[in-house]
Amino acid sequence: MAADEYLIEKSREGGIHLRLYDWCCPTITIGYPQSVERALNLSYLKKEKIPFVRRITGGKAVLHHNEITYAVSSRERIFFSGSSPYYPYLLVSEALAMFLEGLGLEVNLANNRYGELSRKDIACFSFPGRWEVKVKGRKLISGAMKKKRDVFMVHGTIPINYNREKIARATRTPVEMLRESFYSLSELLRRIPERGKLIEEIISAFSEKFRAEVIEDKLDLKDFESLYEKYSSREWNYRRE
């Protein structure tokens, strides 16, 4: 999460920044406005030794594991040319849809607003938010956005294989709801391409969508060390209590 926030400031230098990563162990992220006590089953997390961290973005709790996580940040004019403040989110979702179509999946973007569900303390994958990517009527890719003056960041999860029972218990979400609300890639594809190939396909889709040349780079921990301390602190992670 520290690296994702750093990416927002880095994007002020220009260009479109795409970060792809995974997690060393099952970890929960919660949305910025969420209450820890209401969003999470803390006794279960302690028992299972599952850590959690608060995101800079909104949305609901996500259990990160067996997935590819993406973060996109930019100040380029194309992302701010639409009438909606969420236009960057739409463009990112369209790029992710192109990636899935390349895997042979039929994709559409959610167009409904889920006011009642959005106010409940349930897991992120319980329902699709507007412009999130769906396959066969169910959510497949999650996302959340942060705008900071003239830049934005969208980050989210592409689940390869998702443990419904674990996230249900971690967030007190009815497991029956999760069984009907989303898919992971393993449930839609006969054969999952290796992770390196999936990453190549994601990069290719973003490059095609935004007609961008790909320049590979790596983040250095020292560049965002102060932010790392922030996201490790109890003050940040429990700040809405």
Mean pLDDT: 92
Query: Which fold name fills CATH's third level, the topology?
Result: BirA Bifunctional Protein, domain 2
Which range best describes the helical content: under 10%, 10-25%, 25-40%, 40-55%, 55-70% or over 70%? 25-40%
Gross morphology is globular
How many structural units, i.e. domains?
1
CATH class: Alpha Beta
Description:
The chain has eleven helices and ten strands. The protein has helices at residues 2-10, 36-39, 42-48, 87-102, 115-118, 164-171, 175-181, 185-188, 195-210, 225-232, 234-237; strands spanning 16-21, 27-30, 52-54, 62-64, 67-74, 107-109, 133-135, 138-141, 144-148, 151-159. Strands 1-5-10-9 form a four-stranded antiparallel sheet, with helices on both faces. A three-stranded mixed sheet has the order 3-2-4, covered by helices on one side. A three-stranded antiparallel sheet has the order 6-7-8, covered by helices on one side. The model has no long low-confidence stretch (mean pLDDT 92).
What is the element layout, followed by pairings?
Elements: H1 2-10, E1 16-21, E2 27-30, H2 36-39, H3 42-48, E3 52-54, E4 62-64, E5 67-74, H4 87-102, E6 107-109, H5 115-118, E7 133-135, E8 138-141, E9 144-148, E10 151-159, H6 164-171, H7 175-181, H8 185-188, H9 195-210, H10 225-232, H11 234-237
Parallel strand pairs: 2-3
Antiparallel strand pairs: 1-5, 2-4, 5-10, 6-7, 7-8, 9-10
Helix pairs in contact: 1-10, 4-9
